[in-house]
Design brief:
Layout: E1 29-35, H1 44-54, E2 55-66, H2 71-76, H3 81-91, H4 123-132, E3 136-143, H5 149-155, H6 161-167, E4 177-183
Parallel strand pairs: 1-2
Antiparallel strand pairs: 2-4, 3-4
Length: 185
C-alpha cells in the first residue's frame, strides 16, 4: 500500500514566485525545488533570495535550468538565425522551448509562460546567484546529452534508449541542462 504525501508527512506547496507578498513564512521549508524556472524570470536573484528566506537552517535548494554554454547552442550560434529557426522547427517540439536557440527577449508572446528571459545559465552564474544570498553550492554540473529529443529518438535504436536515458542524467561536460544543489548554512 502506498502512503499519500500527507501520510508521509510531506507538504507540497506551489505558488507564483512573482506574486507579492509571498505567502510563505521565513524558515518554513526543508527543501525547495525549482526546475526550469530560473530562465523565465526577469529577476533571477529574487528566486534565490526567496529560497534562502523560506529555507530552514541546513535546508536544501535544488534547481535545474538550461545550460547557456551547451555544446549544441554554441554550435548553432555560428549559423544565421534563419537557418537555426528552420532546424529548430524540425528538431524540437513546440512545447519544449524552441526559442531557446537564440536571443529571444523581444520574440514570442509577451507574458507567455514559456517565454524565456534568457537562454539559460552556466554553473558559475548559478553559483554566484546562490552565494550572493548566503547559500552554499554543494553540487553543480551540466547533464543531458546535447542533442534535441527528436534527434535522439531518430538516432537511438530502441534497445539502447534506456541506457542513453540513464547516461543523460549523469554529469556531462557541455550538457543541455544545469543541475545545482545549495545548502543554507
Amino acid at each position: 500500500m502506498q502512503a499519500t504525501l500527507a501520510e508521509a508527512g510531506v507538504e507540497l506547496v506551489l505558488w507564483d514566485l512573482e506574486q507579492t507578498p509571498y505567502p510563505l513564512a521565513d524558515e518554513s521549508f526543508d527543501v525547495v525545488v525549482m526546475t526550469e524556472v530560473l530562465e523565465h524570470l526577469d529577476d533571477p536573484r529574487r528566486l534565490f533570495k526567496e529560497a534562502s528566506r523560506i529555507l530552514r537552517p541546513k535546508g536544501r535548494f535544488l534547481l535545474t535550468t538550461p545550460n547557456r554554454e551547451a555544446l549544441l547552442y554554441r554550435i548553432l550560434h555560428l549559423f544565421p538565425e534563419s537557418a537555426v529557426e528552420k532546424l529548430a522547427s524540425t528538431w524540437t517540439q513546440e512545447s519544449l522551448h524552441p526559442d531557446l536557440l537564440h536571443d529571444h527577449g523581444t520574440r514570442g508572446p509577451r507574458g507567455h509562460p514559456d517565454r524565456h528571459r534568457r537562454e539559460g545559465f552556466t554553473v558559475a552564474e548559478v553559483e554566484a546567484l546562490g552565494t550572493s544570498v548566503g547559500l552554499r553550492l554543494l553540487v553543480g554540473y551540466t547533464y543531458r546529452i546535447p542533442l534535441p529529443d527528436r534527434m535522439m529518438e531518430a538516432l537511438t535504436p530502441r534497445l539502447l534508449s534506456r541506457s542513453m536515458a540513464a547516461l543523460g542524467t549523469r554529469p556531462l561536460p557541455f550538457g543541455l541542462q544545469v543541475y545545482a544543489e545549495f545548502a543554507r548554512p
